[in-house]
């Protein structure tokens, strides 16, 4: 088991615990939650984990269990990695103490969506890495729980690179750049060419590929929002079959920011340059690849 100590006070404290038994989980989680209970000026700590682990914590905490928030992981991790960013930011805004102070124990569903494919796993490792930048201004303390019975050795090794204090930590921008160095598959030869992302053509094309009308409208809205935030779009391709309908945008401007579309907007009314945030909330995947001439942005609905 590994469990990193806290860094200097006042910064986002991003720890990692690795364990392979229930006893080892409790041994890592209990001191962390006890630390949160004793932290001055903080609201009660919260554990987001598998239901069986929450039962273990109730027993281990005893009378203190009533002072700890216990949330099933499937109630927190309800979608993609960008959705998890929104969930975390919203929860901190509503429940954290001054400066974002709160202790959060967090266990993604590694035997569910997060670990179902190398591509999905890569998106969650990106989330772990970018969390170091996204939440850097906050005095939040997070302990990310990695159970080797559900998160295999490759996932744990990759996650170590996203957590300070592990000895394997890599700068988040460097890690995101490595993930983006993986080439995207070539579009199929029968992809539909669009001169520009038109809402009617996008909806009709998505419906023809099996999306329901409401889903097609939502997908088209996400594509149009992304296009508005990217600058001049010189062309678009549409392909795939429901639910995995894909639209690829080509733009003359590089994105050049690994946090693009991950930074939560300050309010519900999105500005035009925040369209990529909306697209990441709607789509299962948003892949960005910069090159010398601009950028390719590929959005997949499901």
What does this structure look like?
This protein is 38% helix and 20% strand. The longest helix is centred in the C-terminal third of the chain and has 18 residues, at 213-230. The chain has helices spanning 22-37, 51-61, 73-76, 81-95, 118-134, 153-160, 172-180, 199-208, 213-230, 275-282; strands spanning 2-3, 13-19, 46-49, 69-72, 102-106, 140-147, 192-194, 233-239, 246-251, 285-291, 294-300. It contains ten helices and eleven strands. The protein has a six-stranded mixed β-sheet, sandwiched between helices. The chain has a five-stranded antiparallel β-sheet with strand order 7-8-9-11-10, covered by helices on one side. The chain folds into two domains: 2-180, Rossmann fold, CATH 3.40.50; 192-300, 2-Layer Sandwich (Heat Shock Protein 90). It has 302 residues and is an alpha/beta fold. Mean pLDDT is 92; it is low at 1-10. Helix 1 (22-37) packs across helix 2 and helix 4 packs parallel to helix 5 (118-134).
Quick overview:
This protein is α/β, with parallel strands linked by helices and 302 residues long. The protein has ten helices and eleven strands. Strand 5, helix 5 and strand 6 form a beta-alpha-beta unit.
- Which CATH class of the largest domain applies here? Alpha Beta
| Biggest beta sheet summary | 6 strands, mixed
Shape: elongated
Number of domains: 2
**Helix and strand element order:** EEHEHEHHEHEHHEHHEEHEE
CATH topology of the largest domain: Rossmann fold
Mean pLDDT: 92
How many beta-strand segments?
11
Determine Rg (CA atoms, Å). Answer: 20 Å
The number of helical elements comes to 10
- What is the terminal-to-terminal distance? 36 Å
Q: What CATH architecture label of the largest domain applies?
A: 3-Layer(aba) Sandwich
Strand order of the largest sheet: 1-2-6-5-3-4
User: Which class do the helix and strand fractions yield?
Assistant: alpha/beta
- Low-confidence runs: 1-10
Helix share of residues? Answer: 25-40%
């Amino acid at each position: 088991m590994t469990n990193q100590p806290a860094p200097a006070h006042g910064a986002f404290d991003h720890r990692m615990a690795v364990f392979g038994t229930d006893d080892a989980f409790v041994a890592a989680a209990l001191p962390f939650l006890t630390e949160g209970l004793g932290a001055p000026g903080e609201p009660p700590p919260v554990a987001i984990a598998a239901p069986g682990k929450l039962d273990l914590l109730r027993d281990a905490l005893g009378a203190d269990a009533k002072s700890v928030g216990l949330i099933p992981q499937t109630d927190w991790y309800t979608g993609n990695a960008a959705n998890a960013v929104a969930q975390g930011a919203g929860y901190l805004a509503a429940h954290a103490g001054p400066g974002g102070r709160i202790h959060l124990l967090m266990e993604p569903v590694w035997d569910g969506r997060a670990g179902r494919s190398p591509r999905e796993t890569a998106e969650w490792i990106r989330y772990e890495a970018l969390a170091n930048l996204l939440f850097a201004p906050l005095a939040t303390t997070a302990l990310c729980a990695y159970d080797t019975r559900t998160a295999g050795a490759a996932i744990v090794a990759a996650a170590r690179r996203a957590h300070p204090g592990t000895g394997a930590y890599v700068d988040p921008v460097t890690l995101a750049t490595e993930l983006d160095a993986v080439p995207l598959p070539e579009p199929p030869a029968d992809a539909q060419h669009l001169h520009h992302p038109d809402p009617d053509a996008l909806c009709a094309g998505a419906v023809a590929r099996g999306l329901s009308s409401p889903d097609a409208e939502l997908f088209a809205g996400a594509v149009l929002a992304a296009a508005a935030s990217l600058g001049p779009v010189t062309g678009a391709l549409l392909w795939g079959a429901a639910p995995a309908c894909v639209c690829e945008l080509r733009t003359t401007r590089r994105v050049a920011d690994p946090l693009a579309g991950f930074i939560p907007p300050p309010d519900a009314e999105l500005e035009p340059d925040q369209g990529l945030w909306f697209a990441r909330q709607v789509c299962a995947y948003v892949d960005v690849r910069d090159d010398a001439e601009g950028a390719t942005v590929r959005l997949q609905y499901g």
